Amino acid sequence: MLLPTTVVGSYPQPDWLIDRAKLGMRAPPRIRAQELWRIDPQWLEQAQDDATLLAIRDQELAGVDIITDGEMRRESYSNRFATALDGIDIENPAVVPSRSGKPDLVPRIIGKLRRKHAVELRDLEFLRRNTNHKIKITVPGPFTMSAQAKDFFYNDEAAVAMDYAAAVNEEIKDLFAAGADIVQIDEPYMQARPDQARAYGVDAINRAVEGVTGTTAVHLCFGYAALVKNKPAGYSFLPELARCNVNQISIETAQPALDFAVLEQLPGKTIVIGVIDLNDTGVETPDVVAERIKRVFKHVPPERIVVAPDCGMKYIPRDIAFRKLQAMVEGTRRVRQQLA
Q1: Confidence band (pLDDT; 50, 70, 90) for 228?
Q2: Beta partners for 85?
Q3: Local structure of residue 200 (DSSP, 8 states)
C-alpha cells in the first residue's frame, strides 16, 4: 500500500484505567509506578485487556492501516520492559538527570543484565487475536534504557547498552515468532545524548536486531508534546542511522517543523513521518495533513513514506486522539488519490 498509516505506539488510556491527572503531572516513570493504576491488582490485567480492545477498535474505526495495542498495559514506554530484567534493583532506585536535566528516579544495575522471560509476548498475542490488520509493537531501545538506569556493576557504558541489546534481541525474536508484522525500537535518548549515541548507539541497535528477519523500525523524538513545548527544527542525531540495520526510521515532524533535507542522508530507509501535532488540541483538517505529507516528497519518494502522528498520543484526550487519527487517514487518502 502506498503511504500506509500507523500510530507511533501509544494511544490514550481510559480514565477508569489510569489516573491521567497524575500521569500528566510527572515525567514518564523509569521505575514502576503502580500508583497510577485505578484498578485493583487482581482485576488489572482484565481491565488492561478491555482497554486494549478499545484502542484496537478506535484505530480500526479511524481507518488506520497498521495498528498497535496502544500500550495500554504500560506506565511509560520503557519501564515495563526495563524493570523486568535480571541484574536490576527496582526496590532501591538511584537518581540521574532526566532529558530535561531534572532529577529522575531510575533502576540500579547491580548485576549482569539478562532477560528472565518474555515481557510483551502476551500483549502481542492478544493484539494478533483481536485484529486482522497489520500490527506493530514497540520495545524500549537498549541505548535509551542504559541512559535510564544507574550502573553499579559494569563501569562501561557501551557494555551496559550491549547487554540491554541482547535482551531486546531475544524479545524481538519472540514477538516476530508470535505474529508481529513490525517491531519498533524506541530510542529517544539518541537525540538527547548524541555524543554517546555516536560512540555505541548504532552498534547497540544492530545487536538488538541481529538475526531478526521481520520489518524493524527505530523511533527518535524530542520528547512528548505534553512535556516539551519548544522543539528544534533539526535532530542532533539522525543521519548516523543510515548504518543501522533497521528498515524504518520513525520521527516527529509536525510540532518541530523539521527540515526534511536531512532525510536525503537516509537512502534506502522507509521514513515514518509524524504529521499530527500533539501539542495542539485542535484537530487538523485533512488538507493540513495532506500538505504536511506532500512537503516531504522533495526529499523522500512516496514509496518510502509511512504516515503517523507525532509521538505521545497517550497524553491527549481520547476523543481528540480519535478525531486526529480520522483526519490523518482522510488526509493521507487525498494524497494517494492525487498521486494516482
Answers
A1: low
A2: 115
A3: I
pLDDT in tens, 2-37: 999 999 999 999 999 999 999 988 889 999 999 999
What is the rounded distance in angstroms from the CA atom of residue 158 to the CA atom of residue 201? 8
Burial (0-12, 13-18, 19+ Cβ within 10 Å), 293: buried
Other CB atoms within 10 A of residue 315 CB: 20
Do the bridges between strand 248-252 and strand 66-67 make them parallel or antiparallel, or are there none, so unpaired? unpaired
Q: 20-339 adopts what CATH topology? A: TIM Barrel (3.20.20)
CB 90 within 8 A of CB 149: no
C-alpha pair distances (Å), 171 with each of 84, 85, 136, 149: 12, 11, 14, 19
Whole-angstrom Cα distance, residue 308 to residue 250? 9
Closest CA to 276 of 330, 232, 236: 330
pLDDT at 282: 94
For cell 504500560, the residue is 74
Q: By percentage, how much of the chain surpasses pLDDT 70?
A: 97
Q: Is the pTM of this model over 0.85?
A: yes
Amino acid at 181: D
Block residue for cell numbers 503511504: 3
Given a cut of 70, whether residue 246 has pLDDT beyond it is: yes
Q: Which three cell numbers stand for residue 230?
A: 519548544
Decide: residue 40, CB within 10 A, 0-12 exposed, 13-18 middle, 19+ buried: exposed
Domain layout of the chain by residue ranges: 20-339
CB 172 within 8 A of CB 165: no
Cα–Cα separations (whole angstroms), residue 242 to 190, 256, 263, 299: 14, 21, 10, 15
Please report where in the chains the cell 484526550 appears, as a residue: 317
70 dihedral zone (left: phi>0; alpha: psi -120 to 50; beta) = left
Question: For the chain, what is the largest distance between any 2 Cα atoms, rounded to a whole number of angstroms?
Answer: 58
